Amino acid sequence: MPTYEFICKECGLRFTKSYHFGENLDKAICPNGHMNAQRIYSPPSIIFKGNGWYITDSKSHKKNTNS
């Protein structure tokens, strides 16, 4: 189940909540009881480990210089 981050527009509290895929995220309720919470979008945390992933997973870009 994915976890989403919200901020309450009334009290400023940042909180997280888990939802099933396809559930309506527009009606998130603040833990303090306020109804006006907005979803916060943030970049995913991606960590590339190991060496060579960019070399082995990319196509070769050789130019043909023979005319």
What secondary-structure arrangement, pairings included, does this model have?
Elements: E1 3-8, E2 14-18, E3 37-40, H1 53-56
Quick recap of the structure?
The chain is mostly beta strands and 67 residues long. Helix content is 6%, strand content 22%. It has a domain at 3-47.
Shape field = elongated
The arrangement of helices and strands along the chain is: EEEH
| Rounded mean pLDDT score | 81
What is the C-alpha radius of gyration, as a whole number of Å?
22 Å
Distance between the terminal alpha carbons, to the nearest Å? 57 Å
Strand content: 15-25%
| Low-pLDDT windows of residues | none
Largest sheet properties: 3 strands, antiparallel
Please estimate the helix content. Answer: under 10%
Number of helical runs? Answer: 1
Structural class: mainly beta
Characterise this structure:
- This protein is mainly β.
- The chain has a domain at 3-47.
- Helix content is 6%, strand content 22%.
- It contains one helix and three strands, in the order βββα.
- The protein has one helix at residues 53-56, and strands spanning 3-8, 14-18, 37-40.
- The protein has a three-stranded antiparallel β-sheet, with no helix packed on it.
- A hairpin with a 5-residue loop joins β1 and β2.
- The termini are far apart.
Task: Give short descriptive properties of this protein.
6% helix, single chain, 67 residues, three-stranded antiparallel beta sheet, 1 helix, mainly beta
